[in-house]
Amino acid sequence: MALPLTDTTRLDNTLAVIRTLREQGPVARIDLGALNGISPATVTSISAELLQQGLITERPPETLRPSGRGRPKTLIELSPTAACVVCVKLSINEIQLVVGDFAGQIRHSEYHTVPTLTLSANALERLLEEKISAVCAQQLQSFQRLAGICLAVQGVVSSHSGTIIWSPALGLRNVPISACLAERFHCSVLLENDANCIANLLTAQPAYADCPNLVVIMLGYGIGMSVLINGEPFVGANGSAAEFGHSKYLPNGALCACGRRGCIEAYASDYALYRAAVNHLELPPGDSAHPSEQQMQALTQLAQQGNPEAQRIYSEAGQALGYGIANVLALFNPDLVIITGSGVRGFDAMKAAMHSAIDEALVTELIGNTRIESYAWDRDMTCMGGIAMALHATDAQTLLDSQTAREA
Amino acid sequence: MALPLTDTTRLDNTLAVIRTLREQGPVARIDLGALNGISPATVTSISAELLQQGLITERPPETLRPSGRGRPKTLIELSPTAACVVCVKLSINEIQLVVGDFAGQIRHSEYHTVPTLTLSANALERLLEEKISAVCAQQLQSFQRLAGICLAVQGVVSSHSGTIIWSPALGLRNVPISACLAERFHCSVLLENDANCIANLLTAQPAYADCPNLVVIMLGYGIGMSVLINGEPFVGANGSAAEFGHSKYLPNGALCACGRRGCIEAYASDYALYRAAVNHLELPPGDSAHPSEQQMQALTQLAQQGNPEAQRIYSEAGQALGYGIANVLALFNPDLVIITGSGVRGFDAMKAAMHSAIDEALVTELIGNTRIESYAWDRDMTCMGGIAMALHATDAQTLLDSQTAREA
């Protein structure tokens, strides 16, 4: 019996089952039904279909539970090899390529140092095609199909038109990029802001299930933000909303990488912290324009060890960050603000000044009940989120492809 | 034949017809159908129902059109007396009560000077009950029914729970107000932020039909904002989003009415302009804490006449406003920002500095294509918007009530 893809309820239920298996790992049929409000009979029928199509597998029944009661349940899980997606993260002078399996796990990751800032549009296109081709040649034989590609980019992108509008990683503006990659690799290409990828990853976590209005701030070389409103990414009229790094702390203040003055980024990003520190503190040698992780860790360590100059620098950054967050609270009134990104390494040294600044800036009614939390950074988080988004965007197509392949 | 209110398509079509008649005035049946994608037969049936229920009336056929061609069309229009709503606007030391008819037009308006800042919760409740009772006693006999009440309040409200969370007009916090009024007047009560009422009025205008992401900034004694995302008011997690007036221009800057420093309101509101002017310029006498319209017009006139001190004051206000709008552009990326409110009287004197500040603050990619426009202020705009929202919220109930009344 072919999966009746014209039946939208059936399709929605099938997609919900796949998503649950991806987020929760192996699950028993009965729990899949309960988690998604689907009848046991429907779950049985959907899982039979998915088994036939090779999209899920059964796990041998688990041994008796510790309680010793109840019959052991057969768990079902996604077949990791049913499909893969490639996530490419484009940042300043570096691209990361990650292959994610159908279960959403990273199967391969590689980094390349590339002078991104001087690339022409053609060179960028050729570079991405070449790197993705290489990774496909090496990895694709382990999978049934390449379901899609996610391109995660710092800066302003139009996901709708597949165009990078403005990125600190590029010297270019308005680069249409999705269409040529889609044509070259015969799959759908999702262009996303890097902070939106992180937000997607975090919002799927049970700890944040009660926070549909979520703001994620990414500290690092630059400063990014993602805003989820009722669980959906908010991108504004043209994709350039949530540009927190370039919202203002101080008119005519410190010079920002964007060329304007007084942006939050010009105080609380890695390059701003490094710039404030370099003439006063002894840090490991490196490229002054792009401080290394080692240099930034050395600076953070100085602050942690009580060096007054390093503490002053982080405190100033924390104050700018706090004033910026105060504006976010006044304008977005979110349930939760999560601060992450590689720059979160220095968050403890900024935290007190950040909270003071928020209290100084806003009456308590406007701070409200919004929680402000940090989240430990893992450099694979962007690609993990990008993989999840690319899989989610392509699940319906994967279903159709596996059905066609089975019928052929 | 009773209107089958259980048929949701029929109900939706009927509500759409009523809304179109309210927004456009008298319309021919054929145009009503075309505007709402409803078949001529359905429009005929719906309008027959509405005629029987007394909710619409027919206009005698118009004389021949100027072209002389075509048969004159019978127009239908809402019966203004089918229902009324009362909108109460609560601002600092003043309440305005307006009665709107079923066609959305103002039929009566009155103002009362009241010391709002010192009212207890009980006294506020009694005051509103007394004023609404008085207006009902005087006006209600002209209408079939009181459909609802809209309470339009400056500040942060929870429409959901009917609670005024924080308003500059009150010395109180967290005042539940809707429930007692609903019980007293046996009708639904809508509690709304005043800027949302204005935004509702503006967004219905054909000129803004292509701007689903709309920001309305209200300049006046205080500064308010409403944000529409895809045409829907954005209120945040607890109703306190879009508090533009208390977003920041300058850390540790000028004192704001909220008690904090450096808010946009502390530079660009009426009280801030007056405060900056009062020791340097000769203005008509008045209450220094709450500058009068006459005083503010005198100050605006000085700037228009080229008085350098008045020009400097407006220019500084424009700069603060511009930096605030820059943050709104970076964070919300709207299609359009409309500046209105009584303070728009001084907008011409702020405009150049505002645009300079925006250009100084943001790279062109983040300014994008967002239009920034002013809109001439009319002191009835808040209540016009409140009336429209209250009517829209109660149309289904009005339909049901008229059906019940006709059957009785």
From TrEMBL, chains A, B:
MF GO annotations: DNA-binding transcription factor activity
Pfam families (UniProt xref): MarR, ROK
Annotated ranges, domain HTH marR-type: 15-60
Cross-referenced InterPro entries: ATPase_NBD, HTH_MarR-typ, ROK, WH-like_DNA-bd_sf, WH_DNA-bd_sf
PANTHER family from the UniProt entry: GLUCOKINASE, ROK (REPRESSOR, ORF, KINASE) FAMILY
Stated name of the protein: Xyl repressor
Organism: Vreelandella nigrificans
